[in-house]
Amino acid sequence: MQSLKAQSPSTTATQVPVAAVPSDKIEQEIARVQGVLAEVLKLIDDPASALSTVMRKNVEKAELECYLKGIRFATGQGEPK
Questions:
Q1: What pLDDT, on a 0 to 100 scale, did the predictor assign at position 21?
Q2: If you ran DSSP here, which 8-state letter would residue 13 be given?
Q3: 46 pLDDT band (50/70/90 cuts)?
Q4: Is the sign of the CA dihedral 18, 81, 57, 39 positive or negative?
């Protein structure tokens, strides 16, 4: 157990460094997530949406926004707040 704690996270998990991911792939992912976010916002703003749907979509919206912030921070496009 202690040997796992002593290892750095990069040796315990298979992660791809951000520099290794082509910038066009990152831009495509940002565009994809922004599209999903736009669809979620439409459902939230629709007065015909059920309250339970709006609540679930608000959670999804928060997750997507955090994901985008993380991508932007990791690529140097945004700053932490």
A1: 74
A2: S
A3: very high
A4: negative
